[in-house]
Write a structure and sequence with these properties.
The protein has about 220 residues and is an alpha/beta fold. The chain is about 35% helix and about 15% strand. A five-stranded mixed beta sheet has the order 3-2-1-6-7, with helices on both faces. Helix 4 packs parallel to helix 6 and helix 5 runs parallel beside helix 6. It is globular.
């Protein structure tokens, strides 16, 4: 059975070894049908660095910031970073979220069956898979590979192949750019919320797949 688990993680920085996950969202897809979605917020692992740039910067803003009371009145980076740190440290402890994630996965994947795994699927999938694997390791769980195949499915790579002939016409290959180029409506105020990003990634895959099928059928009709 074809199993995909679409995943998006929001993190406190860009380095899986020194930074941590604070949001994990996903959708379990069996043969193209979404059977379950999940969305966990999680306290960063103790001792991991929290950077302001992971939450706001040039061309980037985390929508979660709107939840922090008084955040928009803060003027210094130090004040902002302190407010973010205090807020995300109110989230559930990692051990509890880890258990909740495994409870979700074990409904659809046989942990002890080496042939029964899912493809972790994400936009720029290496980032998410590296962070999730390191998060498992930091929580003394060496069995990430019991759930997921080693190589994830990368929606960015799929889009790059799709736009190969017109790549120079696109300003970048950000998920929002790709989605909008495909005609997908995007609420930009929701970007960088993990679950919304998962939904956009799924729409990109479905749209490109539909285009490829239509082109194949059109070619077959022309040949006949």
């Amino acid at each position: 059975m074809r199993k995909r688990v679409y995943i998006d993680v929001e993190t406190t920085g860009l380095n899986p070894k020194t930074n941590s996950i604070w949001q994990i969202a996903g959708a379990v897809e069996l043969y193209g049908e979404v059977v379950e979605k999940f969305n966990f917020r999680v306290r960063p692992i103790l001792g991991k660095e929290i950077t302001l740039g992971a939450f706001e910067g040039k061309g980037y803003r985390q929508p979660m910031l709107d939840e922090i009371e008084g955040y928009h009145q803060l003027t210094t980076d130090e004040e902002k970073l302190l407010a973010i740190t205090q807020y995300i440290n109110t989230f559930p402890y990692p051990v509890a979220i880890h258990a909740g994630l495994l409870q979700t996965l074990e409904k659809y994947i046989g942990k002890y069956d080496p042939k029964d795994k899912a493809h972790l699927t994400a936009y720029n999938a290496r980032f998410d898979s590296d962070f999730l694997r390191q998060w498992f390791y930091d929580l003394n769980d060496k069995y990430y590979g019991s759930w997921f195949f080693t190589v994830p499915l990368d929606v960015l790579q799929l889009a790059t192949w799709h736009f190969e002939d017109v790549r120079a016409q696109l300003p970048n290959m950000k998920q929002v750019t790709v989605a909008q180029t495909l005609g997908i409506a995007v609420d930009e105020s929701r970007l960088h919320d993990a679950l919304y990003d998962v939904e956009i990634a799924q729409l990109i895959v479905r749209t490109i797949t539909a285009i490829n099928v239509a082109e194949k059928e059109g070619g077959a009709n022309d040949a006949s």
